[in-house]
Structure formats: C-alpha cells, structure tokens
Amino acid sequence: MAEQNTEAKLKKLLKQERIQLWNTPYTSADNQPGGQHLQELAERYAPLLRLPAPEVGGALESVRAQAVKRGKGNQTFRETNVATLELLLPRDSKKDAKTKTYLETRLDVLVQQVVDSIGEEHGLKHIKLILNGKTLSVDQRLDEQGVKNHSKMMVLKVSDAQWKQQLSEEEEKKKKQKESLQRTQKGFQILSERDGSEDPDSAPFLEIADQKGNPLKIPHEEKKALILAMGFHEKGCSLMKRKQYDNALCHLLQADQQFSRCGSALLGSVDNFAVLQLDIVWCYRSLEALSCLEDGRIRLQRAEDCFLKCYGEQQQRLLMIKGNTGREEVLFLRLYLLQSLLSYVEGDDCQARQQLSKVEALHVRLRPDSEKMAQLLALGFTEREARLGLRACQGDLQEAAVHISNQRQEREELKQRERQRRRTRTEAVSILSELGFSRRDAARALHCADGDVDRAYAILLDSSQAAQLTNNNTEGAVLPEQVDQLLYLGFERDASEAALRLTGGDVQSATQLLLDNQGVVSTDLLSVSPPSTSSSSCSPSFEEPSTSSSSPEDNELVNEVLEDIARHEEDYLDLTLEEETELINAMKTYLDTV
What is the pTM (predicted TM-score) of this model? Predict the structure, then answer.
C-alpha cells in the first residue's frame, strides 16, 4: 500500500507540473529511460515526499514504464481490439520481483483460454484469476466479468489436491450463492405481493413504516421494489456479520439494483440507500478490492449526499424526528473512515489525515464507557440498549437510562396499536365472511378500502354482481359505445374497460365503481371473487399466482427470509466499533510513515 501511496503522490506532482514521463527527455525514441533527467527529477521530489532520492527514482521509473506501456497498449487496443492486462503472478513464479508481467489478449474470449495461455507460458499447472477481489469464472468471457484494457488480474497458484477440492467447492459455492439469491428474491417477492391484503389468519406480510412505526403510503410497484431492496440488504448485513463478505457483496449489489427502481423522492427521504452504499464499500475494504476505488468513491459521495438530504445539513431534520442524533453518528464515523482510506490510497495524505481526525473525534465520543455499560446492564437493560442509549445521550448515564425506558414504552405502545389494528381487521374480515364472502376476498376488499367495512362490502357486492352479470352474458364483451360514454366523463380507456367488465357492461355501475376508486381499477378489485356458496369455496384468480399463494413451500421461503430481518429497528446503528478501531489504528500507522 505504501508503494501505491508514493506513486499516487508522484503522479499528482507530475500532473501539476505537466511533466509527461513518456515523452523526451524522460523517455528516448526507443522507449528507454532518460537516466540523467529522471535522476534530477527524483532529487527534486525527494525532499517534498520526505523519501530517499533512490527510492523516489525507482518509483518514477515505475510510473514512467507504466505510462509507456499504457500508451502502447491504448494504441494496440484501438487498432486491433487486443487489450493489455497486467498479471500479478505468484512470487515464486516471477523471475524479477520488480518487473511487471503483461498479457495481450482480446476481451471477447473465455477466461479458460486465458488461464491455459498463462499456465503454459509461466509453467503453472492449476491457477485461478482474481479481478477486484472476485474469482473469474472460466466458462464466461473476460468482458462479461468486467475485464477491460489495462485491468490488473491476480494469478493464484493452486495445488493438484486443492484444484480438485476447489472445483468441487466452487461449484457448490456458486450453486449455494445462486440459490441464496433466488430464495431471498422469491421470499421477499411473496411478501411484497401479499402487501397486507392476504387473509390475516394465513400468512405474515410486510409493511414499510417510518421511524415512528407508522405505515407509509407508497405506490404498489415502488413498494415491491423497496421491499425487495430492503430484503436483499438485510440478507447482506446478516452475511457481513458472519464475515462472509463475498456472498454479502452479491446480495448488497442486488439490493442496489432494486433501489434503482424506486423514485428519487423516496430515496431522498430514507437513509436505507445511504447505509447500503456504505456497506458495499465496507465489503470492498474487507475483500481488499482496492481496485474498486473509483466505484467506492462514487458510492461514498452518494451516501454522504443522501445523509444530508435525510438528516439535514446540521442533522436538524433527524433531531426533529428522533430528538437526538447520537446513534446515527456511527454511520458518519464509518463514512469518514472509508473516505480517509481511499484518500490515502490515492496519495492524498492531507485529506486522509483530515478525515481521520474527524473519525478519531467521533470514536472517542461513541466508544461505550465500560463502567457505564456495566451500570446499565445491572439495571436490566440489554447490551444493545445500553450502547445506543449512551450514544443518544452523549454518554450521560442518567439520561441514557430514562431514554431507554421511554423507548421501551414507545415500542410497547406501538405493539399494542399494531395488535389492536390487526384485531380490528380480523373482526372486520369475520363480519364480511359471515355475509357470505371468502375470508381472502374480504381481506383484499378491506385492503382496497383502507379498513372501511362499508366500502369493502360495497366493493365485494359490486364484484359479485359483476360476476353474476358476466356469467349471464355469454359474450361478456364490452361495447365501444359504452367505453366512449366513460371516456366522455373523463376516465381512462383501460380503467373504463375494466370497470365495464366488472359490472357486466352496466355503465352506471361502472361509473360509480370508478368514482369510488378515484378512476382506477386495481388488481385487488379484479382478483376479488364472488361470495362462496359452499364451505369449500374456490380460490380467486391472481395475475401472479406464484407470488401470491400461501403454499407450504412459499411459507417456508417467507419464514427463511424473515429470519434475516433484524428484530430491532436500529440494529444497523449498533456497531461495536471493533473493526473500525482496527482500521483506525492501521490508518494511523500508514500515515505516521509518510
């Protein structure tokens, strides 16, 4: 890392002075180094970098050689589509430890072809290629896995026994990883489709709530994407806690894709998206994928911008919502720490020190006092409650105890309200089912009517009448003149046709149905079935039955993904700071040597 730091600083100095090492007098016509001029440059830069001139000279030659090689590689790539890749070979396979090894290849070839070529040229029997901390799949092309012109790839040597074991383990790992992603997606998709409209007796469902636990009104498609995003994020965090960073990163990147489907207004009002960006970069750090610097820098900036929108410039919005800002400060600690690390690797020691000083100030304030922790634990509070309480109250023991007690009371009141809401909803479903409707249809109608029993009954009645009229109408077709009448009244064509189908072509009933539902005929209305006439009623038909059913397999998937959801709403803020402390100490060591 120190070599990267020195070279990064040299590149900045060269850029400031507009010195081009690949041109004369630093590089001759036959691409040889201009010894005297490079030596003079090294002697001039040595005091600025506080390094010996020979060490600076070696770093300058490395930068020069890279620039010359890159220039030639760019020209070759433009003319022939043949890329130049840098190979980081195993130490015992390199003839000269300081000489870089390059490979020229097209990028539209399978990795296996490149593996065979490297093995043959360097006498390596079994190897695997690593790019950005991830092993390249031999059965995919280079460009499909992010390999570009001038990419750096690590070559790892594998023994015969390890190779056989690796083949088996990699296959099993890929299989498990793919299965984990699929199961997580399907499980949360089922939950997102239930959306509170399933029979309350049969299955759980998820709601999106604000910091106070109040359900948020979000458009259906956006809510589905948000539940999937949060689901993948929760699974990724669960894997991070188990130090399975490669698998965690796969889930976090899936969460990032789902968040991209949510509106910018929503992302700007919740901190979930910002926390996800931090978690992705933390995985990069844990996997030592320093080549992901550019992506990491963009993600950290994205996180910082999002925190400012959510919390306010001086965290005033957060103060209004929660009454304090102490717990969220751990997120800024991790943000500044990662920014410090990236600045160091990019050669900006000044910025790295500046960010690290912010980190250390926060670290002193947020590191829990062991004596105060012990006193709060003795009062019967949990370790998490004690840690979060002390941070929320700036380390004041008495205030923390009161704060934790108040939070417990608020959570209990929220649970009571939720129990009462579910009880009321269950009673309403029972009332409607006693009138002859199935419990599932009743639950769906109540969901459409925001819990209003009378409106739900009207919806069920309209749908049952429509079904009877449709059954009596052998053709069941919607006449153009009927659609025109509704269009004249200002309704949309799709909604008008759906309403007419539901009401059996009765224009007046269709008009009333559209008025009752703000001109929209939702899938919930379309899926409501007529009241049952026997004890074993038919299930209503859904547009996506695979994600709406309550089969044992689906319930097993749902229960599986629910296990990864943190039981405490502030779990993501409960950092013990152990890993952060290790990185802070490492950063201090790096910066003390420059």
Answer: 0.56
